[in-house]
Backbone:
C-alpha cells in the first residue's frame, strides 16, 4: 500500500510539473510577442531617423 | 568664426552623483535663432578615487534632436580629480523643428552606469497647433488564457510633438472593471502616424462581452478619443473536458490544488453545481503558503445512472479577482459494472504578471494496482516535453542577444563607437 501511495504521489508531482511547464511555454509565447513588437518599434524608429 | 551664445540662462544646480559632477546641469536658450550655431560647454569633474571611462550620450526621448547636435570628444577617460570640458554645438535650420520647447538630455555614462546628466533647453517661436486623433482601434475575441493585444492607430495632425499617455478603460455595461496602459509613454512627431500595441491579462475578466474604451492623454492637458471596441472574452483553451465515470451509489471526490506564486496571502472561493440534479456546494478561505489542497466530496450517491454536467467556478486572488470556470461531463453507470472511481484534480495557478493557467489532471485509478511502468513512462514523456521547451527558450534568448548586438552596431555606426547601456 505504501508503494502505491508513493507512486500516486509521484504521478501527482509529474502532473504538477507538466502544468508548470505549460505555464512556462505560455510565458515564452507572450515574451516572444512582446519582443517582436519591440523589434518592430525599433525598426520604425530607425527608419524615421534615417529619413531625417 | 565661432558664433557665441545669445540669451543664455545658466542654471547652477547641485550635482546628481557623488562620483561625478557636471557643471552646469542645464543651459536654457530663451528663443533659439534658427540657422545659427550655438556653442555650449559643460564641465565634467571626476571626484571619484578611480579613473572613469566616460561616454556622453543623448537620451532616448531626445534622439529626434540628434541631427542638430554635434558633440566633440564624446568618449574620454577622466583621472581622479580631473575635469574635462565637453563642447556641444547646436544648430537648428529654419522650419526643421516644431514651435515649442525642446530639451536635449545628455547622460554622462561610465560603462552601463549613468553618473550624471545635463540638459540643453530651448524654445522655437511660433503658433502651436495640438491635434491628435485615434485613427482606429482593433482587438479580437480572445480566450482568457491567451495573450491579448489591443492595437491603436494614432495620427499627430498638429505641428508639435505629442507626448502621449494612453488610458484604456474596460466596461462591463456601464461599470468600469479595470483600466490599463497609463504606464506607457509614447512620442509621436508632428505629421506622423504611430501604431500602438498594448497587452492585457484577461484572466481577471469573465467569459463575456466587454467594451474597451481607448483615450489618449497628451501634452499638458489635451486628450484624444475615446474610441471603443467591443469584444468577447472566450473560455480558456487549456480547459480539457473529459468524460468521467462514476458508479451508481458512489460519491465524487474532488481535489483542488491551489498554487500561490505570489508572495502574499490569497483568498479562494469555489462554487460547484451539478446541472439538473439540485446538487451544489461552496468552499472558501484564505492561504499564504505556496500550496494548498482542497479535498472534498460531492454527494452523488443518490444520482441515478445517466450523464451529468458539473460546473465549477474557482475564484482566487486578493480580491477574488481571478476566475476560472470548468465544465465536466460525469457519467454515472449502473452498479453492475467494474469498479472505477473518479477523482478530479484541478490545479489553479496564481502567478505574477501576465499568465495564469488552469490545468486539469484526470486520472482513473483501478483499486490496488497502480503501475511503476506507467510512472516511468510519464516521467520520460515529461522530460522530452521539458527539453523542447528549454530549446524554445534557448532560441528566444539567442534572438534577443542577436537583436541587442545588431541594434548596438547600428547605434555605433550612427553615433560613433561605444556601447549604450548594453554589455
Residues:
Amino acid at each position: 500500500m505504501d508503494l502505491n501511495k508513493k507512486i500516486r504521489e509521484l504521478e501527482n508531482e509529474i502532473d504538477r510539473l507538466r502544468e508548470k511547464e505549460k505555464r512556462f511555454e505560455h510565458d515564452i509565447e507572450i515574451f516572444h510577442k512582446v519582443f517582436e513588437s519591440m523589434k518592430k518599434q525599433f525598426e520604425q524608429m530607425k527608419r524615421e531617423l534615417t529619413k531625417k | 568664426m565661432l558664433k557665441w551664445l545669445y540669451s543664455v540662462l545658466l542654471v547652477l544646480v547641485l550635482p546628481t552623483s557623488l562620483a561625478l559632477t557636471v557643471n552646469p546641469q542645464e543651459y536654457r536658450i530663451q528663443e533659439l535663432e534658427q540657422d545659427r550655431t550655438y556653442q555650449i560647454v559643460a564641465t565634467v569633474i571626476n571626484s571619484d578615487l578611480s579613473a572613469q571611462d566616460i561616454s556622453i550620450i543623448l537620451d532616448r526621448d531626445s534622439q529626434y534632436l540628434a541631427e542638430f547636435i554635434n558633440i566633440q570628444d564624446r568618449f574620454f577617460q577622466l583621472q581622479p580629480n580631473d575635469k574635462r570640458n565637453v563642447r556641444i554645438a547646436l544648430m537648428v535650420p529654419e522650419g526643421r523643428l516644431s514651435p515649442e520647447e525642446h530639451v536635449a538630455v545628455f547622460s554622462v555614462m561610465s560603462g552601463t552606469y549613468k553618473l550624471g546628466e545635463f540638459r540643453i533647453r530651448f524654445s522655437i517661436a511660433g503658433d502651436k497647433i495640438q491635434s491628435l486623433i485615434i485613427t482606429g482601434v482593433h482587438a479580437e475575441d480572445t480566450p482568457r488564457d491567451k495573450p491579448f493585444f489591443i492595437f491603436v492607430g494614432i495620427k499627430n495632425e498638429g505641428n508639435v510633438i505629442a507626448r502621449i499617455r494612453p488610458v484604456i478603460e474596460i466596461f462591463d455595461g456601464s461599470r468600469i472593471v479595470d483600466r490599463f496602459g497609463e504606464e506607457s509613454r509614447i512620442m509621436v512627431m508632428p505629421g506622423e502616424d504611430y501604431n500602438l500595441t498594448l497587452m492585457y491579462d484577461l484572466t481577471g475578466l469573465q467569459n463575456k462581452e466587454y467594451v474597451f474604451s481607448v483615450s489618449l492623454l497628451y501634452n499638458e492637458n489635451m486628450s484624444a478619443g475615446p474610441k471603443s471596441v467591443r469584444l468577447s472574452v472566450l473560455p480558456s483553451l487549456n480547459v480539457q473536458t473529459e468524460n468521467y465515470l462514476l458508479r451508481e451509489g458512489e460519491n465524487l471526490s474532488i481535489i483542488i490544488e491551489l498554487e500561490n506564486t505570489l508572495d502574499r496571502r490569497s483568498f479562494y472561493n469555489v462554487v460547484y453545481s451539478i446541472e439538473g440534479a439540485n446538487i451544489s456546494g461552496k468552499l472558501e478561505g484564505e492561504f499564504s503558503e505556496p500550496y494548498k489542497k482542497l479535498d472534498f466530496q460531492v454527494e452523488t450517491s443518490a444520482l441515478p445512472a445517466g450523464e451529468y454536467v458539473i460546473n465549477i467556478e474557482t475564484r482566487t486572488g486578493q480580491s477574488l479577482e481571478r476566475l476560472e470556470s470548468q465544465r465536466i461531463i460525469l457519467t454515472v453507470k449502473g452498479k453492475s459494472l467494474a469498479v472505477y472511481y473518479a477523482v478530479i484534480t484541478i490545479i489553479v495557478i496564481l502567478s505574477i504578471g501576465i499568465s495564469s493557467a488552469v490545468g486539469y489532471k484526470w486520472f482513473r485509478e483501478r483499486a490496488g494496482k497502480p503501475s511503476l511502468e506507467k510512472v516511468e513512462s510519464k516521467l520520460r514523456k515529461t522530460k522530452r516535453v521539458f527539453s523542447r521547451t528549454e530549446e524554445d527558450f534557448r532560441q528566444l534568448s539567442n534572438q534577443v542577444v542577436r537583436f541587442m548586438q545588431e541594434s548596438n552596431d547600428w547605434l555605433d555606426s550612427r553615433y560613433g563607437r561605444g556601447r549604450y547601456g548594453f554589455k
Remarks:
- The mean pLDDT of chain A is 76.
- Helices of chain A lie at 2-51.
